[in-house]
Amino acid sequence: MSTSNDRSSTSNESASPSFGEAIVSNALPSAMSDSPRIACLLDGIAYRDRIEAWLALARRALSSSAKRSSRSVELRYRADPDVLRALEDLVELERECCPFLSLHITHAEGEVILTVTGPEDAAPLLDEFLGAANVS
Fold it and tell me: How far apart are CA 25 and CA 21, in angstroms?
């Protein structure tokens, strides 16, 4: 597996990051502690494909506003068997590449709810999930 440093852009892209690109600069090891590195393990193409999968699901199935707390994000999707399968597949993949995140799927009020929780150092990654909820 590659580290997040392999995703660094060498082209002259715009200065403001789009969804998914902000993680690269925020994937820092905890230098003064024994904490695990807070960084996605995916490399360039796989990383961008994953981001696109989250965005596609958000465009197709988000049902209400996301909620953000200091250590978590809650995303609500339409209760639909295809949406649930897609969400379960993405959650399984995220657990492999971002083991420091806790991802839980629950059901309530006709919605499928994804709650993503992480350590304080994972705040930029949680913001990425929130960014997916703000896609039109």
Answer: 8
